[in-house]
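Structure (tokenized):
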């Protein structure tokens, strides 16, 4: 009887550890098909038939529809350029340029990839509406309080990430070859 109880306990512990490990693996970007680009990460094959099983399972679980390889790429930043987690109490500048794409968007998302509600009802910027300097460079300020220029409001006290979507980009098939200097910088300006 004692042996049966021990076997049952070991099985229950193994099941619990397996479920926790699976939940953890499916809540993150795949470690097998991930490309780092400064503070940005991307899964270049997420929208293709070559996606690894972890990516496919995460997409199935979240309901996210990734961009197909021919449509573009999505880059996600959860940290600033110094590797610190993005914090809703801080102010960040994003810019001054993006990798080659016909059209792009920069959005504020929660940890599950959904838009974060805010009183200003601004959820992102499109490349066609951004205020730029004479040389084409731009700065988007990500902050909780109103800022002049390109301001992307953070919902107060909520964890967030930045999603940069590049549409009709020549980089779709060669995501690993993106020049790091073309990725927008995510610079922490200060915290309040």
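Design, position by position:
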């Amino acid at each position: 009887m004692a042996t049966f109880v021990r076997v049952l306990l070991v099985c229950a512990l193994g099941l619990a550890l397996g479920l926790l490990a699976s939940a953890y693996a499916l809540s993150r970007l795949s470690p097998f098909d991930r490309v780092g680009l400064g503070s940005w990460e991307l899964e270049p094959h997420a929208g293709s038939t070559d996606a690894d099983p972890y990516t496919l399972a995460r997409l199935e679980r979240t309901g996210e529809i990734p961009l197909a390889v021919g449509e573009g790429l999505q880059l996600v930043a959860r940290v600033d350029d110094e590797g610190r987690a993005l914090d809703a109490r801080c102010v960040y500048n994003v810019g001054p340029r993006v990798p080659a794409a016909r059209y792009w968007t920069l959005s504020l998302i929660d940890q599950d990839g959904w838009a974060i509600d805010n009183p200003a009802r601004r959820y992102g910027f499109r490349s066609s509406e951004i205020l730029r300097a004479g040389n084409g460079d731009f700065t988007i300020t990500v902050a909780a309080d109103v800022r002049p220029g390109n301001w992307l409001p953070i919902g107060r006290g909520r964890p967030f990430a930045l999603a940069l979507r590049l549409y009709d980009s020549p980089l779709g098939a060669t995501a690993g070859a993106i020049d790091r200097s073309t990725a927008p910088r995510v610079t922490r300006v200060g915290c309040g």
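Reviewer-requested clarification: The chain has one domain: 30-191. The domain at 30-191 is CATH 2.60.120.600 (Jelly Rolls).
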